[in-house]
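Practice problem: predict the structure.
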Amino acid sequence: MTSLGSTRTRAFLRLLTSIGTSKTQDTLKLLPFVVMAVVALIDFGSGPTSGLLPLLALGPAFASVACGLARTTVVGVVALVLCFALGAYNDILWMPRTDITLVAILGVTVASVLASAGRLRHEHQLADVRSVAEAAQRVLLRPVPRRAGPGIGVAVSYTSATAEARIGGDLYEVVTTPHGVRIIVGDVQGKGLEAVETAAVVLGAFREAAHDERTLQGVVARLENALTRELSGEQFVTAVLAEISGGSTITVINCGHPAPMVLDAEGGIWFAEPPDEALPLGMSALKASEPQPHHIPFEPGDQVLFYTDGVVEARDAAGEFYPLLERAHLLEGDDPQGSLDALRADLLSHVGRPLGDDAAMLLLRHRAARQNSTAA
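Answer:
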C-alpha cells in the first residue's frame, strides 16, 4: 500500500508539473493579443498625441516566443489592421510616422515568423535528443530490482547536473550472480559525454565481471583492465563495490569513494570508513597492493546508503554542505523508494538551484525484522 501511495504521489506531482507548463504556454500564446488590445484601447482613448502605435509591434514579437507559424502570422496581420484602423481614426493614416510604424510592424512580423520557425526546428531537435538520452539511460542505468534477496529492499535515485539530461558521470548497478548480489556505485571524473562514455565502460565491465569472478577483488581487477584500455592521462573513477552473499554482513571494497552511511536497527548512524581504502579505478599504476575488502554489519532492520560526492558536496546559497548525517531520519519511512525520494527532495531544497554535480544514491534495507514482527 505504501509503495502504491508513493507511486501515485510521484504521478500526481508529474501531472501538476505538466499542468503548470501547459498554463504557462497558454498564457504566452494569449499575451500578444492582450498587449495589442491594451495599446489599441489606450491609443483610442488618448488620441493621436499618444504615439503608442509603434508598440503594436510587440504583438508579433511576443508571438514568436510561444506561437507557431500560423498564429504568429495572424498576430502580425492583426497588428497591421489595428495600425491602419487607429491611423484612420486619428487622421494620421498616411503621415510619415504612421507609414514608418506600418513598415516596422511588417518587418517585425516577418522576423518573428522566421524566429518561430527556427524555434520550432530547435524544439524538434531537442525532442530527438531527449529520446536518445532516454534510450541511453535505459541501456546504461537500467532499472534495478526492488529486492536484492529475501527481505532486502533496494531503492535508487539519480539527479544529473547537466541541463536537459537524464544521465551523467555517476553510475550504479545491482546484479544477482551465483556468488551473491553484487553492487557498484561510482563517480567518473569530469562531466559531459566523455564521462558518460567512461560510465558505460565501467558498467559494461562490471556486469560481465560480476558473473564471472568469484571474489570482489577479481571484479575490481577486471574493471581496472577495462579502464586501462579506455582512460588517458589522469582520468579516474571512484567507486564502492559491495557483495551480499547471505549472513549478517556486506562485503565492501572502497576505491576512493565516499564511505557508505549505515543506519542500524537500534538508531545508530555512522559512516563505514574502510580500514584500507584503495585508490580510485584507473590508477592501477600507482597501487602498491591489491584492494582489501572489509565487512559492514547488515542485521535485520539495518540500512546502508551508498551515494556519490554530488550529495555530500552540494552547497546551499550560504555555501554550507548538505548535512547528510542530520537528514538520515528521512530514510525511516516504510517504503525504501519513498524514503529515498524524500531525501532527494530535501537535497534539492537545500541547494535551491540545479545541482553543480551529478548525485546518485542507492539504499539497501534489511526488512526481515519488520516481516517477522508482522507475521507474529
